[in-house]
């Protein structure tokens, strides 16, 4: 199983009143990771939207383990833990400068038909593109 790895930056505007990375920034990083995963699978968002469907998030969960602060180096990774014909669960891990786990994230996305707004089955050829990123149980 492949993971998509990336290193998000921490900027001054990411810091909240408690002097650590704000919770909303993790959502932004998860969006970056999700788009990178789609690109790695050969399905960038503009391309799949041209095919008449697109991904929509229906659930996000984050568990914070250690705070990140301005100047910290962050390493992130994303992969798929479950996938069916309409939806997928993506798993995220964020590591701090000493490689300790800073946060765990999980998102569920569904594919919708852009004309009807209803969930749609992902074509099998497109579904197979995600196979390298799906964790085996």
TrEMBL record:
<protein>
    <submittedName>
        <fullName>Thioesterase superfamily protein</fullName>
    </submittedName>
</protein>
<dbReference type="Pfam" id="PF13279">
    <property type="entry name" value="4HBT_2"/>
</dbReference>
<dbReference type="GO" id="GO:0047617">
    <property type="term" value="F:fatty acyl-CoA hydrolase activity"/>
</dbReference>
<dbReference type="InterPro" id="IPR029069">
    <property type="entry name" value="HotDog_dom_sf"/>
</dbReference>
<dbReference type="InterPro" id="IPR050563">
    <property type="entry name" value="4-hydroxybenzoyl-CoA_TE"/>
</dbReference>
């Amino acid at each position: 199983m492949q993971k998509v790895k990336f290193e998000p930056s921490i900027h001054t505007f990411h810091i909240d009143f408690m002097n650590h990375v704000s919770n909303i920034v993790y959502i932004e990083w998860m969006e970056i990771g999700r788009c990178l995963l789609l690109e790695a699978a050969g399905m960038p968002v503009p391309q799949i939207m041209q095919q008449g469907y697109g991904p929509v998030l229906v659930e996000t969960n984050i568990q914070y383990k250690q705070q990140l602060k301005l100047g910290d180096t962050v390493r992130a990774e994303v992969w798929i833990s479950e996938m069916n014909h309409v939806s997928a669960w993506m798993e995220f891990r964020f590591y701090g400068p000493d490689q300790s786990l800073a946060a765990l994230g999980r998102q569920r996305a569904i594919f919708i038909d852009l004309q009807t707004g209803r969930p749609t089955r992902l074509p099998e050829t497109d579904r197979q593109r995600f196979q390298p990123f799906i964790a085996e149980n």
